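User: For a reading group we're discussing how well predicted structures match intuition. Take histidine kinase. Before you show the prediction, I'll give you the sequence so everyone sees exactly what went in.
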Amino acid sequence: MTLGRARSVLVDAVLAAVACAMDLTLYSSVPLRADDPRFWTAVGYLGLVFGALLVRRRHPAAAFAVVLVLAVLVEPLTGLHFRPALVVYLALFSVAVSCRKEVAVAALAGGLACAVRIVSRTIQVESVEELVVEAFAAVYLMALPLATWVAGRWVRTSREHAKDLEARRELEARQAVAGERARIARELHDVVSHAVTVMVLQAAGGRRALHRDPARAERVFDTIGQVGEQAMEELRRMLAVLRTDGPEEPRSGVADLPRLLDPVRAVGVDVALRVVGEPRAVEPGVDLAVYRVVQEGLTNVTKHAGAGARAEVRLTWSGDRVEVEVVDDGGEGEPRRDLSTGHGLAGLRQRLAVLGGDLTAGESHGGGFRLAAVLPVGGRLVPADRPPSRVVQA
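Assistant: Thanks. Here is the predicted 3D structure of histidine kinase, as structure tokens, for the group to look at:
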């Protein structure tokens, strides 16, 4: 038996013993002498009641029924002047706490009937003063089972409310963990996917140029090293943010966009950056989102457009929003579908949806691919009834 279970049994035993003792002294005219047979008859009866009360937590309805029947039958069967009440109310409390409403209401009716029985056999009115006293006594005796029942139902409601709160906290914790996992997955995808794509394509080009143009091959390998270093730097920043014992380091943002272009140009894509309007300081989440949109767009260009393609990154600052667009003409190379993870646009949609942004992806007018996003400068959170951001596949 565990310590908690032993403590519970001990508490039940003490409560049952106290209730039996108080009933014997308050609601009985049995002589408290060991040489009186009526005393031992009452003790034997209370022993049965005590045993029933010990199992009231596990079998509340059965325990109440046994105690109620014994309380009603003790006087006619034994001849004792004994009208127990507290043992009945203790069992009634357990039913109110543990049983469904229908069973609890039925038990309340039994408790009230027991109280009526006690009242009807104790009232003796010979004067107005005695009438007033007996009336107050009757109200008190009738109120006891009702108050006991109400207290039990209140305890039951409080426990259910506490369970609901605990379940809600657990659900919120699981949702928070799932959201954090999704965020980390998006960050890892964006960093690794872009770097690996550029490095694979550069390695393929470097292998072809190794013997024909060693100088070009050397530049390719330098680019691979730079891209790898950039990826490691971003991973280091992300891991630093995840640490709880260190300060948050600055994330990539709009100011870092130019460094995304050089590796793409080294692959053979002619890419330009065009800024319209006056750039401004933005909320950190929006700053990172703009960077990720451009990164995903350029990654798609290197995968699907190939060498010889022309691409443009356009940043338009207007009012309370910033518009990001990455568009290419398709190029002449064969798409590298084996480099696609299939999660880039989905992760980008989730990122923008949290910030209240909108995403469009599809075929451009020139036959290439167009990725466009609109983000609020302040990073306003999307309301609960707002539909998710839109992704249109080509």
